Amino acid sequence: MNTQSSRSRKLPKNPTLEDHGSSLWIKILEAEKHAKNQPKGTASNQNTLIGIRVLGYLLLDLYAHVTDVSLGSLPYTRVRTEALSCLSKETDEDVYRALQTLGLTYRNYLLRVFRSNGGSQTSPSAHVSPPSFDRVKERILAELGQATQTRSSVRDQALLRDGYKCTLSGFYDKSSVAKYPELRNSQRDGEITVFTQVAHIFSESASQYRFLDCAGTVFAMLKMFGLENRARELYGAGVNDLHNVITMYMDFHMSFDRLHLWLEPVPGMANTYQICGPDSTAGFFTPFKPDRRVTFTVEPSAAEAAAKQGKTLSLPDPCLLSLRAACSRVAHLSGAAEHHDEILRDLEEITVLADDGSMADFLSHRISMVIPGSVEVRS
Q1: Distance (Å) of CA 329 to CA 33, 128, 324, 336, 337
Q2: What per-residue confidence (pLDDT) applies to 229?
Q3: Residue 53, class by beta-carbon neighbours within 10 Å (0-12 exposed, 13-18 middle, 19+ buried)?
Q4: 3-class SS at 274?
Q5: Cβ(140)–Cβ(156) under 8 Å?
Q6: Cα dist from 48 to 62, 101, 169, 273, whole Å
């Protein structure tokens, strides 16, 4: 599926689907028309339209990828079954409302567990007398496999695994080069360095949802996509395991966090992905990776050192990356990604609540859009 714009696009009239999906599509199109007929410019109109488009594009995207080895047909079948259950409502309007609500549920929970607000991270600074390169490697590997991993420990492990480079550009991490002469000696003449960060596939902030009432809903959705075991690991310290992180240049990380950059598996090539994004960002990647393709590997000397300790440096999880890619594509086609960015900008700009409470409804609605499980307050 080509993602050509970050703006919401109306659903196609005659997409390729199997028989049950095709009959369902008729009602989805009717629900989209019903949403478009709501009063223009209202929160209700924008919400319901995005909701039905999230559902529609998610269904199409999952069907288009039923042969992908990472996800298979289960996600499509489960989403289709959920949507078909909405058709049992008594009236057409109830059916439309149920379909729109289902789409909003996917937006509020599934899309958001892969999206982060892009909190800043600090790249470690160079020390005056850093420990030797080999001693650092031994320390990092000693921490590998411990029950609890932190952002700091998993960053060190990811840098070691990824050869102290941004995986998407191949450029060395600036701070690491400053600390370790061995890396400076490995650089090509004139090669630039960049500040890198550890990017989480399953959002680090989303792992905190286990403390909220919505945790059960998120878990159920991940289970629906065949990710039950991964979900159990990710809710907690497992979010900082190597299979859930990638070393990235800071700007790439911010785009990845906001679903403006995603990685699509290349068929027949293990751990190889196409670097993708909306057309508006296509030129962003060219100076760094002209072919816009990355193959994840464990740096050979790191793999050898880990093997001597009986350990393995895991690569990014293909299934999590595939589901994240699907969510990213759907977020842009449906307009959910752009809408979410607008909401965050609104919340950042509003710092004072009017004395008469006139902003209460607006703020309540906006907050309910960015915090899964929160409830809109009506005065």
Answers
A1: 22, 45, 9, 10, 9
A2: 72
A3: buried
A4: strand
A5: yes
A6: 21, 7, 39, 34
d(CA 163, CA 178): 15
Question: Are 131 and 112 spatial neighbours (Cβ–Cβ below 8 Å)?
Answer: no
Summarize the confidence of residues 311-329 as an average pLDDT: 92
Decide if 324 contacts 201 (C-beta within 8 A).
yes
Residue 262, beta-bridge partner list: 276
Beta bridge partners of 200: 245
Token digits of residue 147:
């029950």
Residue 352: other Cβ atoms inside 10 A? 6
Report the range of poorest mean pLDDT among 15-29, 85-99, 170-184: 170-184
Reference 49, options 6, 95, 9; nearest CA is 9
Distance, in Å, from the CA atom of 366 to the CA atom of 115, rounded to the nearest integer, reads: 17
Query: Distance between CA 224 and CA 41 in Å, rounded?
Result: 34
Phi, psi of 326 (to 5 degrees): -60, -45
Q: Are 72 and 226 in contact (CB under 8 A)?
A: yes
Strand (E) or helix (H) holding 300 = helix 300-308
Tokens of 306: 């880990």
d(CA 57, CA 12): 9
| SS3 at position 295 | strand
Structure confidence at residue 305 as a pLDDT band (50, 70, 90): very high
Cβ neighbours of residue 128 closer than 8 Å, sequence gap 6 or more = none
3-state secondary structure of 243: helix
Q: What's the angle, vertex CA 188, arms to CA 183 and CA 194, rounded to 5?
A: 65
Q: Rounded CA gap, 74 and 62, in Å?
A: 9
What's the CA gap between 265 and 270, in Å, rounded? 8
Contacts with 16 (C-beta within 8 Å, 6 or more apart), sequence order: 63
Bin 242: left if φ > 0, else alpha if -120 < ψ < 50, else beta.
alpha
What are the structure tokens assigned to 166, written together? 């941004």
- The structure's pTM equals 0.80
User: Which of the two residues, 26 and 44, has the higher pLDDT score?
Assistant: 26
Report whether 188 contacts 271 (CB < 8 A): no
Token code pair at residue 247: 């070393």
Dist CA 337 CA 328 (whole Å): 8
